[in-house]
Amino acid sequence: MFSTVNSTDRMIYLDGLRGVAAVSVVAYHLACAFTPGLTVQYAADPLWIVWTPLAVLWNGHLAVLIFFTLSGMILTEAVHRRTQPVWSRLVLRYIRLAVPAALSVLVAWGLLRLFPTAATDARALTGSGWLGYTYQQDLPDLPAALYDGFVSVFLRGGSFFNNALWTMRPELLGSAICFIIALPRNAQVRVVAALAIGVLAMMASRSEYLCFILGILLAEARAAGRLRPILPGVVLAFGLMVGSQAGVEQSPFGGLLVGGAGYDPIYPIAAAAIIYGSMSLHRIQRFLMGPVPQFLGLVSVPLYLLHVPLINTMLAQAYAMIHPSFAVFMIALAVWLVGLLVISYLAAHLVERRLLTGLGWLRDRLASVGRTPVIRRTDP
């Protein structure tokens, strides 16, 4: 999700898709925290609706698979547009991921100091196991928080300051896969390499890396002019229906391929199908290019990074204080959502935009490293 579509390639609707997916992740984590019955992972007896295609609206696992697939596609196209050493791409990618991640950890650290038991108090009322994936009371110091955001999330693949940061390691490693596969000039060699790594990802049940491979293949097909609309409506419907059960161990689609239950490769394929359908159907494109999806795409990165710390602290505290009044909590939730969007918008303009500008400057500086200076000879 930490990849921006270049406006010149006329695919800005993918920004809208990323924004819609980010909202789905927020909805999923709200359900995990306060209505665990809407999730299979955190409910002993899930509500019937989770087994229907409607669950696609809050299936956070599918949304993250869409993020990974979009990253694979957009990064591959970026490599094709601009020649740059792999090492410098990795440096820039690490900074692109680590700076926002570390800032979100600092926000979480500050909020957890202000609301040290909010998640525990809310968990006692909702029975949500998800609210246990955060620090409470015994909070590490500030240097430990900085280490968590800049280093640990990429080594461990998770964070108790902000559990949404588990995606940072797959994003970095998946990016490296994209950069390396894109090295050969021959497109057929690139496709064969991608397919080989995709098979390995399937055999290892690593759906996150299979998503990057599928994104690479979409980019290669588009570059070759072979991404033609073949029954896009059917493909999109397949992606939404199958994807609605992504990450669910008891899914009726689990085991259709070579993976295990909730992490079967069928779900990355569903994510790719949704992207393909979005790229092929003009009605979907027009919707995703509308003001609301485009706004959500603009704020998608801070929205994704900040919503978990805000749920675990401010909203959890409000829930514990308001419980059992459902109506009052709905009002508090509406206020919280507006606040989340405002904060995300400010972060997108004050932090995200400046970071991208700085990365552009650094990219130009790194591009000059290793160049042989031109020495002009002057005759005496």
Describe the biggest sheet? none
> What is the averaged pLDDT score?
91
Oligomeric state: single chain
Count, helices: 14
Count of discrete structural domains: 1
Percent helix, as a range, is 55-70%
Radius of gyration from the CA trace? 22 Å
Secondary-structure class: mainly alpha
Percent range for β-strand residues:
under 5%
Extract low-pLDDT stretches.
372-380
Order of helices and strands: HHHHHHHHHHHHHH
Tell me the overall shape: globular
Number of β-strand runs: 0
Query: How far from one another are the termini?
Result: 58 Å
Task: Give a description of the structure.
66% of the residues lie in helices and 0% in strands. It is mainly alpha-helical and 380 residues long. The chain has one domain.
Please give a quick description of this structure.
With about 375 residues, the chain is mainly α. The protein has 14 helices and no strands. Helix content is about 65%, strand content about 0%.
List keywords for this structure.
380 residues, 14 helices, 66% helix, disordered C terminus, acyltransferase activity, transferring groups other than amino-acyl groups, transmembrane helix, transferase
Element layout with pairings:
Blueprint: H1 13-34, H2 60-81, H3 86-114, H4 118-126, H5 142-155, H6 168-181, H7 187-203, H8 207-223, H9 232-243, H10 266-280, H11 282-288, H12 291-298, H13 300-322, H14 326-367
